[in-house]
Amino acid sequence: EDSIQEVYKKCLGKVLHNSDHNMIVNWGLIISLQLFSAIGMDASRANRRHFRIVRGQAISIEKVPWQVSLQAYGMHVCGGCILSPSIILTAAHCTNGFRPNQLQIRAGSNYCKSGGQVVQIKKVRVHSKFNINTFENDVAILHLNNNLKFGLTTKSIQLADRTPTKGNVLVSGWGTTSENSFIHSPHLQYVDLKIIDRMCCHSRGYAKENKIITDGMICAVGNNKDACQGDSGGPLVKAGKLVGIVSWGIGCARKEYP
């Protein structure tokens, strides 16, 4: 198991390189766009890009045992990923406006409202360069009050050692099933998406909205499938390793906004 210092190094500042030794990205910047799509630009907390799975399918927590529900006052707001028995990775914007004692996670359950283990948050560490306007560095680490008990439904996920530029990825969560809905899915859902080139992603619609797709962002697309409100902070997984977390986008499952 990685020490807390090693987790910080991987998630909040380590620079990864490819085989040509060209800088790819800070892992802390690896956030996915419309896989990780947003509900728009409303700044209110209720509408602030807390995403969910559109046209997904039910999945057992045993298939994604690193998935957790991040909750405020006992209500699901975002997803998260287990890095160790005491550390959860999520999106920084998911913690905006909340104190640690207002947050908890539920792990090891197919449902965000029941079952599994519920643990209170002790400390929140947000990326020092997180920008709420551009969603750059949209990463936060949560320290738990008590360690999770690992088993068949509760496990950590290994971080990828490089940023993928293509291929299929999986995202999971309890977010809403449509762009205009505020009702979260009671059962854990998943969807398969495909990573696309950042420049292609930018030209498909984000450019006209003056939204910048940085080197620290991954863009993924599905056939009328997507993440949506309530999926933020959840895992983007390729070949069993964590390559990103749900962050932002425009709308849900809009073909012009991957």
From TrEMBL:
Per its record, the protein catalyses: Preferential cleavage: Arg-|-Xaa, Lys-|-Xaa
Give the superkingdom in one word.
Eukaryota
Class of this enzyme: hydrolase
The protein's matches in InterPro entries, at most eight in alphabetical order, are given as: Peptidase_S1, Peptidase_S1_PA, Peptidase_S1_PA_chymotrypsin, Peptidase_S1A, Trypsin_dom, TRYPSIN_HIS, TRYPSIN_SER
User: Which subcellular locations apply to this protein?
Assistant: Secreted, Extracellular space
Q: Which UniProt keywords apply?
A: Disulfide bond, Hydrolase, Protease, Secreted, Serine protease, Signal, Zymogen
Q: A single GO CC term, please?
A: extracellular region
What GO molecular function terms would the record report? serine-type endopeptidase activity
Tell me its EC number(s), please: 3.4.21.4
Q: Give yes or no: UniProt keyword Protease.
A: yes
Which SMART domains is this protein grouped with? Tryp_SPc
**Which BP terms does GO give this entry?**
proteolysis
User: PANTHER family from the xrefs?
Assistant: AT26814P-RELATED (PTHR24276:SF91), POLYSERASE-RELATED (PTHR24276)
Similarity-based family: Belongs to the peptidase S1 family.
Recorded protein name is trypsin
Taxonomic path: Eukaryota, Metazoa, Ecdysozoa, Arthropoda, Hexapoda
What gene is this protein translated from?
Acp74
